[in-house]
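Re: weekly structure request thread

Next one in the queue (211 aa):
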Amino acid sequence: HPACSPVLQAARGYARPVTRKRKDIPSHLDDLPPTLLKKDYANLPIMNSVDDVVKRLLSLEMASQKEKMKVKTQQLVEKVRRSPNDTGSFEVQGKFKKGRILIRTLEEHLQRHPKDKRNRRCMLMDLDRRRKMLGYLRRVNYSTFENTCKQLDIQYSPPQPYTRRVTKRWLVKKAFCIKVFQEKQKLKAAERLKQRREWQARARAARAQQE
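Done, posted below.
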């Protein structure tokens, strides 16, 4: 308003909300065709005779992110499945496929919201869980491990060996713990010796009564 003072006009301009442009981050679900049907309706024979409007309503074009993730999971299962009837192998039952989708989704979410610490923690936990499962599969069946990493586009990095920094405080604490353990073992040895002698005395008394 022209009647306002310059200070008030500056304050109003400062208090105006800032519109930030949202980052256009591509999603890992963009490669799904929109004409593809949802998982619950994909194998129904009646879908061949329904109207085009119904097909569009039941396709991924009108689907939520959760339903798209189900279809993506099914596609990943088909990649790592050993045979058409394979439902019990470790790579099919394991959480590689689901973990990969969740990790990619959390990565995209954290790119838009980098201060979301809770989801960052969940993503790190999922990464650690997947690393342990891949390590087990690597020890048991290396060829299946290589095929799973190749089909699911996973890069496996073995965990780094744990090394403790040796400090004076840690050495004193370790020596104290060892001393306490040794003293406790001595007390247990004396108690066991006392119990053994009592059992021997009872056994001798029982034999003497029988004689």
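The chain has a mean pLDDT of 81. Residues 168-210 form the longest helix (43 residues).
Next request, please.
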